[in-house]
Amino acid sequence: MGVRSKKMKILVINSGSSSLKYQVFDMENEKVLAKGVVDRIGLEGASLCHSPSKGSRHIITTEIKDHEKAIQLVLDILSDKDHGIIKSLDELEAIGHRVVHGGEDFSGSVLINEEVMEALKNNIELAPLHNPPNIMGIEACKKIMPEKPQVGVFDTAFHYTMPEYAYIYGIPYEYYQKYKIRKYGFHGTSHQYVSERASAILNTPIEELKIISCHLGNGASLAAIKGGKSIDTSMGFTPLEGLMMGTRSGDIDPAVVSFLIEKENWTKEETNEFLNKRSGALGLSGISSDFRDIQDQAGKGHVRSQLAIDRFAYVVKKYIGSYFAIMNGLDVLVFTAGLGENSSVMRAKICQDLEALGIEIDYDKNFTRAIEAEISTNTSKVKVLVIPTNEELMIARDTYKIVSKL
Ligand code: ADP
Fold first, then answer.
1. Are 194 and 314 in contact (CB under 8 A)?
2. Which of 29, 193, 318, 330 is the most exposed, having the fewest neighbouring CB atoms within 10 Å of its CB?
């Protein structure tokens, strides 16, 4: 790495269908120089909210007809003389993009070129809601800054190491060959980040650790990470599999789906909406997908809110048990994402009665939120950690690594 690379400023972009989040990192110290979000792209009332780390938040409301306009607006504000953090775009060395689905093509982050774009487009079928806006973000950057290197960081890539017997489903093999139907897993960047942090916090090489990482946000998944490699994860072909989530059902008997299609006369879209948007904690509680509301209501005696909490914790616990089994033990249990980082109630409920697996949490230490903390008792065989995730930093690091070698 040359002197130049030490001065790297990396723009990280997470481009969704109608919103685009960004952060700029100074890789010399990995500090965030600015972050922000463009909301309601292509819709009425679009806006950009820009927060430099030094200085006050700045909001622009204007027409933002597409992703290209959104990126242009971000670049303008980043180099704005009053609110910006760079003098000119020359200071940005590269752009790192979050890409949801890498399919079977990517085992790690890559420099984006024509071939990669082709592969991304071929994977649209696997993530029809997520990959197209990711691609739009990349194409917009390419158009505005054709000379800047761009790197794709995939949600699926960390799980590339799963053995075939873990990712294959028990359906005729030709459907895997024909349509690539298999478990892929998601939240990989987050699982990788927290597992690497766990190894650093415990000052133990990751190769020696068996880790279960619990990413519990609105979307939620667990990963079994042995020697730094994901060997199984709870999300599957799509993010619908696994835990019950904010609005997703998670694992159910697949026969329920055809039963309901017949009874309710649903279309494919209605069925998907039911499973992805109307189920989970929202569907069970009947009041909200947000566990803050659900915990509030449960505290006031709302029975179905309590049921949603009990069910969520129960399913997480079952996955912890099964991942303990497939790794033949456990050294570290990590909680991350909105619920994992903030809810001491949920962490306590999940960890309750797990002494048989060597998991004991200290209820005083567990009373923590949004910071790195060890919450296990001194005698607990398994270390239980809370680690705020940082997918953007992970994307910036991978981008830095790849671009430094150019
Ligand atoms: P995502 O990125 O998947 O949208 P987050 O990781 O931001 O989700 O997590 C959001 C969820 O975290 C909220 O829906 C809420 O259920 C939960 N959450 C956040 N803060 C708290 C809290 N203090 N107590 C309980 N749950 C919380």
1. no
2. 29
